[in-house]
């Protein structure tokens, strides 16, 4: 605009900020434009300090594609694990999820390793994707300093979904990692927060994908992956300016190629996977589970495998499991009391079954004991609808558990009395514990003192 422009009635050349070089010279700036004139202290020009020539739609979209495949799998395995806890019995946490209630069905007992795989994958994949999440955030960090943060109502909605997306994934990662380390620093119930946090994240992810999927496709097609991965550091150049402003306005020289950046993120993911997967593998592999101390091998011998809760932590002492210990069996109108000698006199069955913990570790051991269906038949409950198991454990969320009919009647479901040919140790539930195929480990109740078979008994 020239300096000799004749002002119109709406011009205000007397304004202190009026300038011939300023867009809209002479007119008052309102709304989004006025907001742009008043950035918070220290924010003006901050985004221009991020000068890496690697940033751009292509690298961001590569990270985004990996997360688009991996994160829904983490979410789905988490939902399956929630269902494995039996929400129909009120023993999945959180108990009350309102309209987020999932379809209820009897969790299967076959294959016996089902929960071992779903929970192990949920934890291991979640940890493995952490470097990819951080890489994606690094690639878009200049956008966090945009001012104004939005220039239209549509952008406000988009930024809100992005806030929930980023906040949701960081919250899920932080609480998940603290939980598997048994570092309960939350000040709130982990299970409830993690469940609802996952739904908030997924809702934001759906919105974000709907808004950005076309740009992701365009960005990935703009630079053939094979050709881009062949470019060395010296040949690395910025991408063309993009409408989202991911490309640096004043890029500096490359200190690493895009191939190197992807190799760094991928290498860190592989390292985390290597430090995690050992918790689900028996033998010497467990020594590699450095990030998950609960999944490491605590000892040697037939009972030297991991344990989630010790007898001391559960408040179960030698007096509770001594000669006076009895197992009480109940059903409608009938009751039986058995000591350890009586249980050992019953037909014994051996099965090789896993224990899988919510923290992601699992182990496969050989268990020997009395079939649960034989104990049910002893009190006339040939076809119980469920069984409620109580422990000697003094307190805790899992001092009791309810088993489905298929879990009671499975031929490998046991009240185990021995493992790997040896008596159970106190920490593994001596004198008797439940072992059921595909059941979460916390519901394989230890130090069992009572089983109530519910449903009409056999006449």
UniProtKB/TrEMBL annotation:
InterPro entries the record matches: Di-haem_cyt_TM, Mopterin_OxRdtase_euk, OxRdtase_Mopterin-bd_dom, OxRdtase_Mopterin-bd_sf
What parts of the sequence cross the membrane? 58-80, 121-141, 162-184, 196-213, 261-281
- Provide this UniProt record's keywords sorted from A to Z: Membrane, Transmembrane, Transmembrane helix
Top-level taxon: Bacteria
Disordered: annotated span: 1-26
Q: Return the Basic and acidic residues bias intervals.
A: 1-20
Domain Oxidoreductase molybdopterin-binding as annotated: residue spans? 324-457
| SUPFAM superfamilies, alphabetized | Oxidoreductase molybdopterin-binding domain (SSF56524), Transmembrane di-heme cytochromes (SSF81342)
Q: What is this protein called?
A: Molybdopterin-dependent oxidoreductase
């Amino acid at each position: 605009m020239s300096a000799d422009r004749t002002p119109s009635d709406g011009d205000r050349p007397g304004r202190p900020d009026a300038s011939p070089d300023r867009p809209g010279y002479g007119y008052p700036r309102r709304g989004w434009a006025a907001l742009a004139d008043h950035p918070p202290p220290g924010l003006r020009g901050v985004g221009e300090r991020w000068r890496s020539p690697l940033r751009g739609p292509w690298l961001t979209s590569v990270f985004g594609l990996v997360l688009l495949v991996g994160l829904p799998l983490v979410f789905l395995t988490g939902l399956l694990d929630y269902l494995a806890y039996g929400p129909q019995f009120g023993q999945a946490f959180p108990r009350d999820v309102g309209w987020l209630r999932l379809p209820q069905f009897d969790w299967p007992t076959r294959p016996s390793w089902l929960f071992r795989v779903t929970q192990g994958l949920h934890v291991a994949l979640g940890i493995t994707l952490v470097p990819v999440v951080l890489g994606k955030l690094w690639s878009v960090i200049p956008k966090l300093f945009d001012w104004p943060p939005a220039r239209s109502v549509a952008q406000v909605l988009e930024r809100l979904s992005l806030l929930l997306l980023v906040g949701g994934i960081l919250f899920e990662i932080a609480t998940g990692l603290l939980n598997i380390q048994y570092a309960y620093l939350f000040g709130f119930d982990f299970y409830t927060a993690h469940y609802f946090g996952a739904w908030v994240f997924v809702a934001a992810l759906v919105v974000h994908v709907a808004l950005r999927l076309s740009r992701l496709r365009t960005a990935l097609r703009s630079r053939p992956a094979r050709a881009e991965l062949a470019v060395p550091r010296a040949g690395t150049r910025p991408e063309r300016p993009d409408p989202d402003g991911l490309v640096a306005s004043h890029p500096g020289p490359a200190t690493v190629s895009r191939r190197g950046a992807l190799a760094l993120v991928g290498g860190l993911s592989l390292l985390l996977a290597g430090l995690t997967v050992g918790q689900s593998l028996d033998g010497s592999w467990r020594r590699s589970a450095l990030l998950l101390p609960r999944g490491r091998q605590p000892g040697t011998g037939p009972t030297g495998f991991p344990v989630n809760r010790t007898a001391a932590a559960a408040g179960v002492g030698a007096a509770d499991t001594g000669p006076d210990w009895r197992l009480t069996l109940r059903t409608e109108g009938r009751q039986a009391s058995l000591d350890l000698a009586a249980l050992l006199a019953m037909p014994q069955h051996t099965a090789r079954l896993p224990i899988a913990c919510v923290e992601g570790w699992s182990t496969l051991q050989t268990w020997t004991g009395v079939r649960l269906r034989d104990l049910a038949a002893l009190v006339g409950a040939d076809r119980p609808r469920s069984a409620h198991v109580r422990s000697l454990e003094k307190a805790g969320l899992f001092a009791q558990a309810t088993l489905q009919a298929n879990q009671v009647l499975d031929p490998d479901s046991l009240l185990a009395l021995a493992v790997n040919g040896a008596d159970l140790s106190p920490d593994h539930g001596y004198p008797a514990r439940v072992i059921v195929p595909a059941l979460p480990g916390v519901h394989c109740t230890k130090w069992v003192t009572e089983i109530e078979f519910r449903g009409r008994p056999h006449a």
